[in-house]
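Can you give me the bound-state structure? Components:
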Amino acid sequence: MSEVKLKVNDLKKYFPIKRGLLEVLTGKPPKYVRAVDGISFDVIDGEIFCLVGESGCGKTTTGRLIARLIEATSGNALYKISRNIKDLVPEGLLVNGEYLNLLSKLPGNIDKLLRLDIQIIFQDPYGSLNPRMTIGNILEEPLIIHSIGTTKEERQEIVYRALSEVKLNPPEEFVDRYPHMISGGQRQRVAIARAMILNPSLVVADEPVSMLDVSIRAEILQLMLDLKKLRNLSYIFITHDLAVANYICGRIAVMYLGKIVELGPSDKVINNPKHPYTIALVSAVPEPDPSNRLKIREVPIKGEIPSAAAVPSGCRLHPRCPYAMDICKTKEPPTVEVEPGHQVACWLHTKESPTAT
Amino acid sequence: MSVLSKVYDSWSWIRKEILSQVSGKVAFTLLIFLIAISLYAAFLMPPDYTKYWEVGSKWVDNPKNAPPEWASYLGYTCIPQTYYDIRALKPTVSEVSGRITLTYNITYNLEAKDFPQGMRLKVYTAVPQGVRNAKIRVDVIKPDGARLQAIIDSSIELANTSTISLTIDKFENIVSAVMSAYKDLMRVLSPEDISIFPMKYIFGNLSYSETLKRVETTPLPGKYVFLIDVSFRVFDVQPQDISRSIEKSKEFSLLITGTCYGLMGTDYKGRDLAEGLFYGFPIALTIGLLVALASTVIGVVAGLFSGYYGGFIDELIQRSVDVMGSIPLLPILILVAQSIAKTYVGEDKPIIMLTAIFTVLIVFSWGGLAIIIRSMTLSIKSELYVEAAKAVGASNLRIISKHILPQLVPYIAASLVYSTPNAILTEAGLSVLGVRHGFPTWGNILADARLNGTISQWWWVLPPGFLIALVSLTFVLLGLALEKVVEPRLRR
Amino acid sequence: MLARRAVFLALALLIAVFLTGLILGATGYIDTIISSIIDEEVRAYRQALSSSPQKPPPDELNRLVEQRKQELIAYWGMDKPWQARIIPMILNTLILNLGKTPSPEVANVAGLMPNSLISDIIAACLPRTIFMITLAEAIVILIALVVGPFVVYRIGSLIDRFIVAYAAIMNAFPIWWIALVMLLVFSYSFGVAPRQFRPVVTHINALLSGDITAFAGVLNYVWLPIITIIIVLSGPWIYSIRAMLIRIVKEDFVTAAMARGLPEKQILRRYIIRPAASPIVTNVLLGLAGTIGGYIITESVFDWPGMGTLYYAAVTSGDAQTILALTYVFTLVYVIARFILEVLYVVLDPRVRL
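Here's the bound-state model for the whole set.
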């Protein structure tokens, strides 16, 4: 249990759809966008845990829920707080002496405290930096908010160190520049530096390289790996790119329409996918081998993702799944372990699994 | 410290933008000029200026409705104010049976072909004990040889007091003086005309017009000699004592009121318009900036609240602005101002009225800015870097002040610039309409011109309007220059 | 939703009238007026009694006068709080039962006798305002609609910069002051315009009853005010049309049309003006609606017997009914204009759907 950094249980986030006056008056039930519809997973201390899926699957929402940027509709997420701030949390809030439910309503000072421990790197390197602030100001802001460093010089020092850490050298040259004066890759380094500057122990990375040039991606990913080793971090890494996931992830959870359909060690999930959706994702990865370019590959899935406001009944994939059976249309499949550490939620595998219900 | 440097940075950036254009350069120069004059005027302003201007006791001696001194270049005949301090003159002293008489001799040279507006003799002196009675008599010897005798002939008993305090600007004896001086015209002279226009007969050439069947007066330039006799019936007093007390007196003067005055002329009360216009600068700027500042601050706060927190307050603010936009401002303003004018009694009526006018103006003007600020706030609030700031723990206050507010600066500046002349113009407009608050603004001067002056007194009617327009123009040009800042799409 | 807009506009109308009533009552203005009316009547009554042949003894006289005073107080409702007096007035105004005017100054503006129906007075004064101000504003708008696009097509040129400078200067001068100056120059110095403008009433009345030749008479009086308004308002109007069109001129689709060599007129009409139609129509309609009650000071400077002068006369003489009625009319015109705009938006802007 002490190995688990974060235990998410049945997390749900529904966004209400605004209704017109007429609909309210006729008593129609409110509609929701079920962005995250009951997911559970663990993040082991020190691992890189990936959430993988296409647009609209709920992975970004999950990331924001963990980072406490939005409020959950239901569920809990027990988080092991770092020792250096654990003492500042009142006893009554702790579960098992070490864990805090991230999704509960926490008082303002605890919320602020958690920012020191859980940070987030955003996808858009330009959007996440205020274009009217200098790099120095952007990095200094978290320090000022948390009263780290009592003088400007002290903070300056910390900022320089943060910039060096993300290989933006010499730091003095960068502090007075504005975001539009540096490249996309450099901006994302600044975003990483900002996330690191408060010394968190859990970092949510929301597609941090998706908007960068392909040639830069490897550098940034390498930087993130180095930082993880250096600082002993845990990552929740969100991506839609299986190639990236393959490179960086320890364990992968594949999401579809708000649910986790497959979860396991990344090599197992990518090389031996069990869920039809995962299979489709894997086979859709562009083929690097030119000799295979003439081979027509079947992407074994049809159609487009339905809207999360109108979720299909039973197994969500059934309208698109080539293996759909009758039961898939009516009942949601249970999560089943097909190999140690490798879970799938699919009716196809319930018969095989020894723990089938 | 960093807040100040942030403000300074955006300020210097704005200033550079403004100065890069012609309109900006002109506006900036004008603005500096306005501020400089206003500060200077504010520094020199007499205390309780409202009363000072309203009562106008300082200007009793000025010519009324007089054009400026330089109007002579426009063809106006200008007679300057001529002031004789009689205390400095050496009188001829004579003593005859208990009566000491001091005779003063003043030569006045009338150069222009016009009649002076008036004449005034003022005495304020202490007299030694033993003086029983004082008589003052003034004779005028005109250039045409006629001698008007005793146009002033006053007698003062000094039984109980030992001070003489006398201001004579009316000439009760004028009719008989003129009649006896021009005996051959006695039958055709009109006593009524003489008493109504004494100056014409003192300083004019009298001739009988056959065609008009009456005496015509034309200006008579030349040397006029005023003989001022001051005699005292005394008991045991020496002539030297009398002379000395007159020399030491507070005032003993003869003033011949001219027909032009000062830099900008005078109004119907003789008030120096140059002064009124000068002191109007800081008043106008204060009015404008005060109202602009208040409505801008309210607009920004409302807009921020509305956009950032949303909900019920947002709805309320939006609906209020919507409703207020349909209510006609000017009629309500006139009604409020006039209602208070007619019902309020109190010393501070001008201030109360002005406050009421400003309040209505402010209440009706904050809405426009609020809507703009609201929409800006909404759009910035949803930016990713705001979310990122929240992720590092920024409070709402910090987000508003550090991330949203700096971007609103151009709109705030534009709002200030646009609203400042508005208040000045509205106040002036109300005054001209007839809603008088009594505060000595340019609008007040204009209103006086419309009410008490004729429209031909251009020096009274035109300058206040020009100045109002000047101030207005400064801000309009400033606004033009700022437009480029606020609306980047207009940049070429 | 049109219905929602209509509700809010109606609300604005109600608030405007109630606010006026509130101001009249709360400042005690109306009470002051009524008090003086009562005092005047009581004094007259006392006078009449004293000079009558059967003059009653002093105690009897005082008793009768006091009785009359109480009658008057009850009649005018002065024995109740001001709300009780104002509210019926407000409600009456709202249902267009406007009442009569007791004020001679007000009736004078219309050219009628005191105690005339307020609706008659408004009906008399309205055409005069329309003939002067609304007409002038319409001319200005037409000028702006012609010159605006012309100038926008030639942004940055000499004529464009001249127009901008002209607009800026005219924005600075208050219209009523220019009016004063125009009177000074044309009516008093050169004598080519009349000094009194009230006589225009006879000509307008004649014109309205069908006499076409009266037009010359009207023109004689109306030309100076109209020219004044044109001089002052053209600048800002052209500038505002220009500003609205500028946004569109910079769009790529206009440049593309120019590159294709389309004639200027066509570009202007279909590519520039059409998208800007919505804000332009808004300003035009609201501008015209605003002429009814928005030029009180200018009308007063010319002593033009229109709605503005009427309102001011009502305010200075404390004629509450007329004040309420006029506020109602001013707001009503504006509110109707805004509602028409809402309907038009659906037509003009394809992006707006009910």
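A couple of observations. The first strand of chain A starts at residue 4 and ends at 16. The interface with chain C takes residues 21 of chain A (CB under 8 Å).
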